[in-house]
UniProtKB/TrEMBL annotation:
GO molecular function, one term: ATP phosphoribosyltransferase activity
Gene of this entry: hisG
Domain of life of the native organism: Bacteria
Primary localisation category: cytoplasm
Annotated ranges, domain ATP phosphoribosyltransferase catalytic: 52-206
Domain writeup: Lacks the C-terminal regulatory region which is replaced by HisZ.
Enzymatic reactions: 1-(5-phospho-beta-D-ribosyl)-ATP + diphosphate = 5-phospho-alpha-D-ribose 1-diphosphate + ATP
Residue ranges that the Swiss-Prot or TrEMBL entry lists as coiled coil: none
Protein name: ATP phosphoribosyltransferase
Matches recorded under NCBIfam families: hisG
Enzyme class: transferase
Its job: Catalyzes the condensation of ATP and 5-phosphoribose 1-diphosphate to form N'-(5'-phosphoribosyl)-ATP (PR-ATP). Has a crucial role in the pathway because the rate of histidine biosynthesis seems to be controlled primarily by regulation of HisG enzymatic activity.
SUPFAM superfamilies: Periplasmic binding protein-like II (SSF53850)
Length: 215
């Protein structure tokens, strides 16, 4: 039985290597230097497919991959159809925040009932956050570099991920609200969990033992 695991390059791939190693899986190549999108492993029955972070749930939903690792941010925006979230891997951790230019009085704007323009790659998360607060917003969907939007007048605020805070600082932005704690999750195709249970279960066990060690 063959297993296909969907991963994105960069931080998720790096932080997944120790989890894979615990399951006895070692990638044959480094996706950062290889241009291959399908990467073999030391195990004949396991291969990795390298996709955009936000595409991981889609590959798993349709069964093109049996397993995948994706951020909670990506999973909320995707909606989760066709997949089970099996495990919080506690990797690629960061926070979903509202940020504004330094000097912008966010609390005063909210109190006044101003209609805010908010740029984000995460329209669902942003919309729900402001709806809960009863703040009227126009969401402007972007695909990256949200930090630029308020600097050039595209928006008043952004909803984005923050880890060190260095990017906000470099662009003279400041976070004003915490929305969610984010980490990456192991997701499994619903049909594959039944049909390939014997192959998937040992991977789940190995991953969860690494996660427990880190707690
Ligand atoms: O890059 P691409 O458009 O292909 O996709 P992506 O940006 O979604 O992928 P990637 O690999 O950058 O992120 C994958 C996952 O890592 C995300 O879905 C998150 O769950 C998680 N993660 C953890 C982060 C960060 N930390 C993070 N800091 N994703 C993005 N960032 C960005 C953030 O958007 C901001 O631009 O890093 C910048 C802020 O970082 P600091 O350290 O300056 O605060
Ligand atoms: Mg990125």
């Amino acid at each position: 039985m063959k297993l296909t695991i969907a991963l994105s390059k960069g931080r998720i791939f790096e932080e997944t290597l120790p989890l894979l190693a615990a399951a006895g899986i070692v990638p044959a190549e480094d996706p950062e230097s290889s241009r291959k999108l399908i990467i073999g492993t030391n195990r004949d029955d396991v291969r990795l497919v390298i996709v955009r972070a936000s595409d991981v749930p889609t590959y798993v939903q349709y069964g093109a991959a049996d397993l995948g690792i994706a951020g909670r941010d990506v999973l909320i925006e995707h909606g989760g159809d066709g997949l089970y979230q099996m495990l919080d891997l506690n990797i690629a951790r960061c926070k979903m925040m509202v940020a504004v230019p330094e000097g912008f009085d966010y609390d005063a704007a909210v109190k006044k009932g101003a209609r805010l323009k908010v740029a984000s790659k995460y329209p669902l998360i942003a919309r729900e956050h402001f709806a809960k607060k009863g703040v009227h917003v126009d969401i402007i969907k972007l695909y990256g570099s949200m930090e630029l939007a308020p600097l050039v007048g595209l928006s008043d605020a952004i909803v984005d991920l923050v880890s060190t805070g260095g990017t906000l600082k470099a662009n003279r932005l400041t976070s004003v609200e915490h929305i969610l704690d984010i980490s990456s999750r192991l997701v499994v195709n619903q049909a594959a969990l039944k049909l390939k249970y014997g192959a998937i279960q040992p991977v789940l066990d190995a991953f969860s033992s690494v996660v427990r060690q880190g707690e």
